């Protein structure tokens, strides 16, 4: 059975609806995703961040929820926890932009991020860490953008540019 939902012709919400699917950890950009969402909230008052996956360490969930509250994002961030793959991908397919903002740790820089390919297979534009390998994949495919994962203002600028250009969103999604 194919567990990847058919994305068909994507309809973008204009909110935007951001998604991260994977282990939620500091080194995987958890706090930067919240900061980016907070920066975008003024421009997009209905912005959503969907965070799917288990927290590591488990205490990081409390920190993420507390930071979301401090940033005024409680109504904008949805934490799903661990989900079966088919359910996770169903949630991902309902979003607009896939995030993979992992920190430049040696374990990640040369890795192939499954989440990036899952987003691309669902026709989501991607915004990923600017590691040379990831940047080359995303740039060569024309599937999104690679940014400094430690600079939420830069990440927010790229997301806003995508969100404001529906033709670009479609092109990046289809190219993926």
Note down, in words, how this protein is organized.
The chain is an alpha/beta fold and 176 residues long. α1 packs across α7. α6 links the parallel β5 and β6. It starts with 16 loop residues before the first strand and ends with a helix. It contains eight helices and six strands; from the N terminus they run βαβαβαβααβαβαα. The radius of gyration is 15 Å and the shape is globular.
Count, helices? 8
Computed structural class:
alpha/beta
Radius of gyration over all CA atoms, rounded: 15 Å
Q: Can you count the beta strands?
A: 6
* Overall 3D shape: globular
The helix/strand series, from N terminus to C terminus, equals EHEHEHEHHEHEHH
Helix and strand topology:
Blueprint: E1 17-21, H1 30-41, E2 48-52, H2 60-70, E3 77-81, H3 85-93, E4 97-100, H4 106-109, H5 114-121, E5 126-129, H6 132-141, E6 144-147, H7 152-164, H8 166-175
Parallel strand pairs: 1-2, 1-4, 2-3, 4-5, 5-6
Helix pairs in contact: 1-7
Concise synopsis of the structure shown:
With 176 residues, the protein is an alpha/beta fold. It has helices at residues 30-41, 60-70, 85-93, 106-109, 114-121, 132-141, 152-164, 166-175, and strands at 17-21, 48-52, 77-81, 97-100, 126-129, 144-147. It is built from eight helices and six strands.
List its salient traits:
single chain, alpha/beta, 8 helices, 15% strand, globular
